[in-house]
Design brief:
The protein is 12% helix and 36% strand. The protein is elongated, with a radius of gyration of 20 Å. The protein has a single domain, classed as Immunoglobulin-like (Sandwich), CATH 2.60.40. The strands form three sheets. Strands 2, 3, 7, 8 and 9 form a five-stranded antiparallel β-sheet that branches. A two-stranded antiparallel sheet has the order 1-6. It has a two-stranded antiparallel sheet with strand order 4-5. By secondary structure, it is mostly beta strands. It contains one helix and nine strands, in the order αβββββββββ.
Length: 112
């Protein structure tokens, strides 16, 4: 039992941790050679690597869990860095991260 618990603990510690939510898009087929996405969030531009699926398709998968509270606007372009080409910008995507925090649990007690 002790070995099992140690194994589970090791797997949890070694796993890649992601927050949420994520900005995603429909997958591109492997033949499209999309390997990056150029995101513009509130006027700031960043380039992120595409997420590659088992079948070779690629898609956008960007963690916005750490973004500041408030309303944000994002556009994305698909990019093939091999050929140096980019798609047109996507339509603007507007999302809001709520401010504040969740209230602490109340009414905690024991039941029989």
């Amino acid at each position: 039992m002790k070995k099992l618990l140690l194994t589970i603990a090791a797997l949890l510690i070694c796993s890649t941790a992601y927050a949420s939510p994520f900005i995603v898009c429909d997958p591109y087929p492997a033949s499209a050679s999309v390997d990056q996405f150029v995101l513009t969030i509130d006027g700031a531009t960043i380039t992120v690597d595409a997420k590659v699926a088992d079948n070779g398709s690629t898609s956008l998968y960007y963690d916005v869990g750490s973004i500041a509270a408030g309303t944000h606007t994002l556009t994305a372009k698909a990019k093939c860095s091999l050929w140096g080409v980019e798609s047109n910008s996507s339509a603007p995507f507007v999302f809001t991260r709520p401010a504040g925090s969740i209230n602490a649990p109340a009414g905690i007690g024991l039941v029989k």
